[in-house]
Every structure is written in structure tokens, then in C-alpha cells.
Write a structure and sequence with these properties.
Layout lengths: L1 H24 L4 H13 L1 H12 L13 H14 L15 H12 L1 H9 L1
Helix pairs in contact: 1-3, 1-4, 4-5
């Protein structure tokens, strides 16, 4: 019950990020892109990271030791930003959130995820 509610809340947070950041990521005008992404990195993404951080427990995953779909979705969503490949959004954008960072790294090191990444 609690884990299901947490899972749903985080799935909603991930969808919120996708909806909010999608148009910013697709901007073409360089000045507009820089302004929007810089503002998002210091504003919205910090707020989002803080909200997610407060929902993550002692880990390593959301449901403790068991990997769940929300962990994978968080991993994909956060990794897109921490890869350092999105102009004007620093790779350290989520550095202030140790539980989120820990969760993403735990997913990255999960044997099935590591195996999948190795085949790409």
C-alpha cells in the first residue's frame, strides 16, 4: 500500500518533469534555449529534485532492496540530465540530492541494467 502510493507519486513526478521540460529541451533559438534551460536548472529542476528526494527512503531503491519500474523511470529521466549533454544544464544539476543520486547509481549498477547498457 505505502510502496504503491510512493510508486504512483514518483511516476507522476517523472511525468510532470517530462511535460514541463519537454518544450524547453526542444527549443531551437539559442538565446531562448540558454535562458529557459539556465532558469530550469536553477529553479524547476532543483524544486523537482527536492520533492523527489523527500520521497526516497533508505534505499538503495524506492522499495528498499527491490528494483521497481519507478526506479527505472527515475534513472532514465535523471540520467538524461546528468549525462552533461544538454546545453546549459550542468551535469551536476541534481548533486544536492544524495538519495536521488544514490538511487540512480544503484540502478546503473544493477546487474540487469548493466547488462542491458553493455549491449547498447
Amino acid at each position: 500500500p505505502f510502496e504503491a502510493a510512493l510508486h504512483e507519486a514518483l511516476m507522476g513526478a517523472i511525468e510532470d518533469m517530462r511535460v514541463r521540460m519537454g518544450p524547453i529541451i526542444r527549443l531551437k533559438d539559442e538565446a531562448e534555449k540558454k535562458k529557459a534551460r539556465t532558469e530550469a536548472a536553477s529553479g524547476y529542476l532543483q524544486d523537482w529534485g527536492g520533492q523527489v528526494e523527500r520521497q526516497i527512503g533508505s534505499g538503495p531503491f524506492l522499495a528498499g532492496a527491490k528494483l521497481c519500474v519507478a526506479d527505472l523511470k527515475l534513472f532514465v529521466a535523471v540520467s538524461a540530465y546528468t549525462a552533461g549533454t544538454i546545453d546549459y544544464i550542468p551535469a551536476e544539476v541534481f548533486a544536492a540530492f544524495p538519495k536521488l543520486t544514490r538511487l540512480v547509481e544503484a540502478v546503473r549498477q544493477h546487474p540487469k541494467v548493466a547488462e542491458w547498457n553493455a549491449r547498447r
